[in-house]
Amino acid sequence: MGRAFVYVVLGGGVAAGYAALEFARRGGYSRGELCIISEEAVAPYERPALSKGYLLPEGPSRLPKFHTCVGANDELLTTKWYKEQGIELVLGTRVISADVRRKTLLTATGETISYKMLIIATGARALKLEEFGISGSDAANICYLRNLEDADKLVNAMNSCSGGNAVVIGGGYIGMECAAALVTNKIKVTMVFPEKHCMGRLFTEKIAEYYESYYTSKGVTFTKGTVLTSFEKDSTGKVTSVILKDGNHLPADMVVVGIGICANTSLFEGQLLMEKGGIKVNGQMQTSDSSVYAVGDVAAFPIKLFDGDIRRLEHVDSARRTARHAVAAILEPSKTRDVDYLPFFYSRVFTLSWQFYGDNVGEVVHYGDFTSSSPRFGAYWVGKGQITGAFLEGGSQEEYEALLLIVRRKTKVSNMSELEKQGLAFAVQESKKDLPDGGVTLGEKPAFVCCSQDTPKEQCRNRMSREDGGNIETNKGAEKNSFPATFFLMPSVKQMARRVVPESRSVKKSKATEVRQRTKKQSEMGRAFAYVILGGGVAAGYAALELVRHGDGVSPGELCIISEEAVAPYERPALSKGYLLPEGPSRLPKFHTCVGANDELLTTKWYKEQGIELVLGTRVISADVRRKTLLTATGETISYKTLIIATGARALKLEEFGISGSDAANICYLRNLEDADKLVNAMNSCSGGNAVVIGGGYIGMECAAALVTNKIKVTMVFPEKHCSNGRLFTEKIAEYYESYYTSKGVTFTKGTVLTSFEKDSTGKVTSVILKDGNHLPADMVVVGIGIRANTSLFEGQLLMEKGGIKFYGDNVGEVVHYSDFTSSSPRFGAYWVGKGQIMGAFLEGGSREEYEALSVIVRRKTKVSNMSELEKQGLAFAVQESKKDLPDGGVTLGEKSAFVWYATAGVVAAVSISAFGYWYGRW
After folding, report:
1. In terms of C-beta density within 10 A (0-12 exposed, 13-18 middle, 19 or more buried), how is residue 560 classed?
2. Which of 162, 39, 12, 48 is nearest to 94 (CA)?
3. Which of 175, 205, 553, 587 is deepest in the core (most CB within 10 A)?
4. Count of alpha carbons within 13 Å of 154, Cβ hemisphere only?
5. How far apart are CA 341 and CA 179, in angstroms?
6. What is the pTM assigned to this prediction?
């Protein structure tokens, strides 16, 4: 049925290779006990080579030259090496689900791989244009760069584009790297990004100006302060022009997109703690589950230098070191101290070379010569009278080491003017001083990449060769005519919305006035508000209502709601229920918030009467928490005093699981009004036809009900053993619901996954092809494979942690079922008991009083002394216990959970028989 290992490394990037080498050197496993699972078809390799040596026009680097671990001047780990070490490489394999409690991984082929200890090294994926509302980025001449397949596509595009025009979208690491490679390949380059300058997360404006000037001298054109909106294409589907928000059309023979990355955490969301967009770990790289570790781009770990602040670092050196540290902690936990990592980033551009250490927070002091053709300049960041970060261009190894030391030591600064005057000499002098305890060095240094005018040329070329993929002679040539660059930069919605308002309203009106005065200059370029709600979903409407009702309310012009949708906030649950009815369907304005809580109907007119500005149809593309500003896709800056983030979540797309072509007219998702309208249109054209629903969770079950109601034959496909993704329902509960759905005509195809589609000449799907070889006829396809919180604007700026929306409590512990699972008018349930206490409770067919009783006993963690008696009493146990006084005389335990019918969005408990009866009365 599958394979079992003691140790599994999930992911095939840089971190996986360094973890394997550490295992081999420590001898902590026997042959056949360790495996690496990778979606790629090759052994782990040094990813930085893809944007450097791999893209050179002459003598480009190719595997096996840059397999790990050559980037750290260590062994070259080829496939043969893994075989000799008894490490099993499970390549070309996608893991589609993980069960941390059961310690199993399910692959796309249906194989189950179990482990005793797991290292998550899944890295990150490139953000796609579709995620920002730009469609059609599957054209042959639109390129991303994250893996070998991407790199090969980019090389092919460059080879067919010599002398042509390339547009690079994004001004960060990948954008700057690829721009360099394109110019080296004799392609004219225009870079487009909305920020004021390149590398906005690290560079100051002054530093950025220097590098932009340098790139300009190499032929690169910068188009800043605007964004891509769409493409023009030829008859073959290739892009010929990039259309910008400012109205400009840029000719393009190819497009390279580098707009950021997102850590691959989806397999573990809801199972492990999350923070800052990654999986939260401790100083041993251990997650919230003691048998699971996370390393590299996916890990958010404490930085001692920053007083234990959690950071997620997208940097190759961090991947190498955290991987090795995790293995040491697994094999020798008592001897392994907490990781003590100093963040650093570096770059090489032509004859230029810079390094950065620490954190770019605090007041900035620039120094040195920014005008020389052999530049030698830098900057210090000073916070609370201490050096927090340091940057240097054109330094020697000794000088870079000096920067490292003063940042690690948090060297004190007493006079900013004197610091600016001394410049680099300050770091050199301070680094030579003994610490108060007599120590001089402060532990492990980063691997230095120091290639400047002060480094011996041969030594420099050797270092570049190892990072870029092993082509020393090629790098020699590159020095003459190009600039191969390296940049490492690395409870319910309604209740929560209402809860946050009292805190935000503690800012008095006088403060709001102060904000407007303080941001007067900003408002000349945009708008300024005391309160901004970012997002136009359910939470936004309830937050607005609470702000109006709370205290003195809000004055006209103080509050705005920014939404990507063109309508005022509405009750999203209606989209999968009344909106999909075949007769008399619900339409706006009937289900604007806050009718879902039997409260006011907040139409556009209501917001206008309250003086609340609705900024609709507007996408925010970046946020700066420190400056309290939001940048929209139109280039407008909106500033705030208090921000409520209500961005909700987006539907996971098939492309994120390697399935292309899901933009067909008859493939539907369901997250917003636009999705719902597409689904309605597809159903209207499909009456009596066949629909395939991909996913057995909340949306899948809801949509299956709607499709049957619309007289469409439905087949549901999912890889788990039973519906609800196995995350809430027990097998017994799931069996009941599946049986009920089957009685309504739904067919279940379980234990397999979608692999591809068959389409007709118009591009519509006609058949769904499954991993087990079956072909399912399909007039339409509905996809409900999960959601991902919209946090990307704030990753790296705010702490992140993933919590689930649960029925009542948590479904962990021993399960006790009760009552009748066979009745046509069912009334059954289950308790989850852990450590002698009620941890969770489920009920089908209950009354309001009974649901409230469940809420109370879960909140109280009611004790259970006899499991057999609990099973015998069933629902009566909850009703009786909920009426008992607490030891301190209290009866209630504070605010109750929102009633379970639809406040439990995301779990199949919402799709109860009662819900069917209410929404789909004529089965």
Report:
1. buried
2. 39
3. 175
4. 32
5. 31
6. 0.60
